[in-house]
Amino acid sequence: MAKTEETGVKPGKAAGKNRRGKAAKAAKVAKAPKGKVTFNLEPEVLALAKREAKAEGRELGHFLQKAIEGYLVSNIPAEDELVQRLNAKRAVLDKTVSTALELNEAGKFDEHFILTVIKTAASDKDFSASYDQAINTANEKGVNARKARLNRQLGRMILRAAGAQAKRAEDGKPMRAQVSDELITSYTLVEKAA
Description:
The chain is mainly alpha-helical. The protein has one domain. The protein contains seven helices and four strands; from the N terminus they run H-H-H-H-H-H-H-E-E-E-E. Strands 1-4 form a two-stranded antiparallel ribbon. A two-stranded antiparallel sheet has the order 2-3. Helix 2 packs across helix 3, helix 4 crosses helix 6 and helix 5 packs across helix 7. The termini are far apart.
C-alpha cells in the first residue's frame, strides 16, 4: 500500500496514530539531541565572528561554541553539574590554546607539536583537574566518548593556534603517532600550513 504525500499515513489508517508516532519521535529526539546545528548569520556578523575567532586563535566553529556555552553557563545556576563541566572544559581549551601560542612563539614547533602542547599543559595540576572534570571521570558512563571528543577538539585547536596542518603520507592520509602514559594516546603529526 502506498503512503500519501500529505500525511505520510497509509490510506485507511487513523491520522491520530500517526500524530502519536510523530510526538513519540519528537520526544525521543528531544531526549537525545545531536551535536550539530546549522543556522545563518548576517554577512557582517559572520565577518566579525571570523575576525574575532582568528584573533583568539580559534576556528569559527569553536569560537561560536564558546559563545553559546558561555551564554548558557551565565544563565544556569553555578552548582549545576553541566555548568561545572562546561567551565572545566573551557579552562582546558583556553589553557591549550594559550600553551600552543606560547610554544609556537618560542620556536618549539615540530611534527610532534600536539603532544608537546598537551604534555606541557598537563604538567599543570589545575589543567589536569579541569580535564578530569571536563570529561566527568566521576561518571564512567560515556567518559570515553567525552574524552575522545575533547581530545579531537584539542588537536584541532592546537593546529589552528600554530597555523599548522596535518602531515600527510604519500597516500594522502594524515600521519599519526601512538604514545602511552600520556593524557592522549594518539595524535596527528603536523607541519606548518603552506
